[in-house]
Structure formats: structure tokens, C-alpha cells
Amino acid sequence: MSMTHYMQLLAENQPWNLLIFMAVPIILAETVVVTELYILYTRNFSGIVRWVNKWAGILVGFYFAIVFVYLLVTAAVPLTKGGGWRGWIDVSAVGFYLSGVIPLLGIALLEVGIIARDRSPEQKLMIHASLVALFLVLGHVAMVFGMLDPALAGGTVAMPMHGH
After folding, report:
1. pLDDT tens digits, residue range 91-135?
2. What mean pLDDT comes out for the span 140-153?
3. What pairs with residue 2 in β-bridges?
4. What are the CB-based long-range contacts (under 8 Å, 24+) for 93-97?
5. pTM (2 decimals)?
6. Which of 3, 59, 70, 124 is packed most tightly, with the most Cβ within 10 A?
7. What's the rounded Cα separation, in Å, for the pair 93 and 144?
8. How many whole angstroms separate alpha carbon 154 and alpha carbon 164?
């Protein structure tokens, strides 16, 4: 059994890679999700919950943009140039993970007023909620592909898991 580069990244350099590439972005994104649900239910566009929602969205968007650039330069491009991918499952896991930058950066840009600045609070909420939903889908698809053995689809067997 082998693992995707996604899982290998999270498993190496414990606990730092797990914290940097999974825990921090997921905790911030889940904070956005939970506060988003409250805002959707109450339509309260002010107060502490909205403030937490706004700042978690800004932080996760810009934080993940840095993660995206770092992993693109240090992992995705070298793997592509060197033919190091372990098949389409591996590419899918990393690709879906990295594509999370689109909705997360979109949330940050919405919060700082770079996009949709002329929209009503309700329209912004719709855009915001759509971006949150898109991130959840992309992140969960990445996790599912990331946990698969790339050899299931003919990918190369590399980096055996310890104890197997």
C-alpha cells in the first residue's frame, strides 16, 4: 500500500505539516462555516459573530494563498516536471486541495471589499455562502482522494506506509 503526496505531506514532519497544511486552514474555514450558518439563520450582519466570520475569512483566504504558492512552487511544479506523480488519484488529491484557494481567496477578497463591493449585504451573503460551500466540497473531495491508495488506479507504488 502506498499514499498520495497529499497524505505524505501531512504525515511528514509531525506535527508541523499537519498543523500548517491542515489544522490551521481547516479550523479557520470551519469557523467561517459555523458563523456563516448563524448569519444565514439570523440575518444579523453586525455584532461579534459577523466580526469573527469576517476576520476568519480574511485570515484563511490570505493564509491559504501563501500555502498555495508554497506548495505549487515546492511540490506541484517539481512533481510535474520530474514525472513524480503517482497516478491520477495523486494528482486529483493535490489538485482539489490546491483548488481550495479559489473560494478561500474569494472570501478574503469579498471581505476586504475588492470584489462585489457594490452588492447588497444579502447578495454578499449569497456569494459568501456559495464560496464557503465550494470550499467544503473541494476540501472533502481532496481528502477522499488523498486517503486512497494511488495503486488502486494503476499509480506507482511509492512511500510505503509504516507497519504494512
Report:
1. 999 999 999 999 999 999 999 999 999 999 889 989 999 999 999
2. 93
3. 160
4. 93/4, 93/5, 93/6, 93/7, 93/142, 93/145, 93/146, 93/148, 94/4, 94/5, 94/6, 94/142, 95/142, 96/138, 96/139, 96/141, 96/142, 96/145, 97/6, 97/138, 97/139, 97/142, 97/146
5. 0.89
6. 3
7. 8
8. 19
